[in-house]
Amino acid sequence: MGHPDYDWDTTPLLQIWREKHDSSGNACSILESYEPGESISILEEALSNNKVNYNGEDMLFPFSLEILKWADETRKIFSSAEVPPTVKFYNIYGVNNSTPHSFCYGCEQQPVSDLQQLLSLEAKYIYVDSDGTVPVESAKVCHLLSIFSFDYPPFLDADWLLAEARVGVPGDHRGIVCDPHVFRLLKHWLKAGEPDPFYNPLNDYVILPTAFDIETHRDRGLTVNALNEDWEIISGDADEQGKAAAAKQTALVGSVSVAHVKKDQPHAETHAAIVVHPQSEGKQHVELRAVSVTTSG
């Protein structure tokens, strides 16, 4: 249920193919669309008899008029909430996942004659980008993270709260909690660890190591070092043109070999290869493989 008082960029709609009758009594199908404020009365009618009689007693199903009433009252409470002046809010939300936005019940060939039928019908969804649960505009309302101390200018958005920053991170509703990008944001906002004066989380470009392995072997005056390292370059969301260009890209491969050969000195040589994979969902994977061989002379 979308927020009825918010000025949506793309308004979520409840659409229903309804069966109507003309003045002659002939049935026809009409597609009706309801905005968030209008959909409440539709839901109330659909839930008006959502119960079962057991041993002479009416038992409500989990989604009932009472639940709808509580949800609407909770929304009103959140809408009037104010942030204490000593608390600063930061908003992190997931993106790059198909997320239901508007939904439609029935079809032109099989319209809905009774709104109570909605409870047993399967809706067809219109999807937008977000974290897989709620649209980005709604995620900005729900996913508020309170942290103290930060100096970016505040942003007033869907929740009517002054957020110090709002950042979309590629990931689903729960997955972003484990995302290295989010950890980097939290460290920056909490001023934990060594500060990076050039890092701006609102226009993020981060290189994070995801795997590191080095092995050393020595035998009969020969030393071999092997290095395997993986990185992820995390950047801001690309536009549609950028995404289309990235989809056509192939992996870039490069290599280099260096040798040190000098009379009466130990022989040493190094071979390295790097693979840069095309960007996907805001991330670009990089593989580094290197081997060095040194003799003791």
Supply the key terms.
297 residues; alpha+beta; 2 domains; five-stranded antiparallel beta sheet; four-stranded mixed beta sheet; 5 helices; 18% helix
Helix content: 10-25%
Strand content bin: 35-45%
Shape: elongated
Specify the number of helices: 5
Order of secondary-structure elements: EEHEEHEEEHEEEHEEHEEE
Mean pLDDT: 78
Secondary-structure-based class equals alpha+beta
Number of domains: 2
Q: Rg, please?
A: 29 Å
How many angstroms does the end-to-end distance come to?
A: 75 Å
* Multimer state: single chain
Largest sheet features: 5 strands, antiparallel
The beta-strand count equals: 15
Q: Describe the strand arrangement of the main beta sheet, using strand numbers.
A: 11-12-15-14-13
Low-confidence stretches: 142-159
What's a concise summary of this model?
With 297 residues, the protein is α+β, with helices and mostly antiparallel strands. The protein contains five helices and 15 strands. The chain has two domains: 14-203, no CATH class; 206-295, no CATH class.
